[in-house]
């Protein structure tokens, strides 16, 4: 039996590594003991990619990268590292060379874009009272409240940072589309997943936070990717 890879989970905007909590528990129960979750600064794609590269470089064996939301741009940027065996995108951006998450968003805006507002320091926030309906409409109110209050805002300029040489052109990929997503337009998800020629695409009837609302299905896709990539 081939070695189980280390699974490195990469969060997106308006959340942190703890957004993966349900997936982490489920993967552990499936026998995946080598799990890591990066905490990104969300200050620039370069900074976030460098933080992820350092974590991947610390792993001794094969690594499967999993990115949610903006985390998909990060894994696209760093996934060409030699020990990375595959990429899994969870309702995520997968920009091509010279594309940014912001550019993709502007071309086909999501339903909740009006609920994202800048502050005087240049950070972008989802309005607290609009967080559940925007980011995780199918979670329980209390769980959504915690996500709203603990949200991690990105510097607005990060949205415009371009991916240089996307690893999805070279490495095996898997993609999960959220059909009710209000933060990344589902049509954008369909476009990005189709052009990467993934091993598998699944569509879940859920909002943007599928890693929490459909954690069993997301975990199953990650396990399938880990098994095939190994």
From TrEMBL:
GO terms for molecular function: hydrolase activity. Residues 7-219 form the AB hydrolase-1 domain. It comes from the Bacteria. InterPro entries: AB_hydrolase_1 (IPR000073), AB_hydrolase_fold (IPR029058), Sec-Metab_Biosynth_Hydrolase (IPR052897). Pfam families: Abhydrolase_6. Keywords: Hydrolase. This is Alpha/beta hydrolase. It comes from Stenotrophobium rhamnosiphilum.
């Amino acid at each position: 039996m081939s070695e189980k890879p280390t699974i490195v989970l990469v969060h997106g905007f308006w959340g942190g590594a703890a957004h993966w909590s349900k997936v982490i528990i489920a993967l552990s129960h499936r026998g995946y003991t080598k799990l890591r979750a990066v905490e990104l600064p969300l200050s620039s794609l370069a900074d976030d990619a460098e933080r992820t590269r350092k974590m991947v470089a610390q792993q001794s064996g094969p690594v499967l990268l999993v990115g949610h939301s903006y985390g998909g741009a990060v894994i696209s940027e760093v996934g060409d590292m030699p020990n990375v065996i595959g990429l899994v995108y969870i309702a995520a951006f997968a920009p091509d060379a010279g594309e940014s998450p912001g550019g993709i968003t502007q071309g086909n805006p999501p339903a909740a874009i009006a609920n994202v507002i800048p502050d005087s320091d240049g950070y972008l926030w989802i309005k607290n009272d609009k967080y559940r309906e925007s980011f995780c409409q199918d979670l329980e109110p209390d769980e959504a409240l915690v996500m709203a209050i603990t949200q991690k805002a990105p510097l607005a300029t990060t949205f415009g940072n371009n991916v240089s040489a996307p690893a999805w052109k070279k490495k095996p990929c898997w993609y999960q589309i959220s059909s009710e997503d209000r933060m990344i337009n589902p049509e954008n998800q369909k476009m990005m997943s189709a052009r990467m020629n993934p091993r598998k695409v699944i569509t879940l009837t859920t909002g943007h936070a599928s890693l929490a609302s459909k954690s069993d299905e997301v975990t199953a896709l990650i396990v399938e990717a880990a098994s095939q990539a190994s």
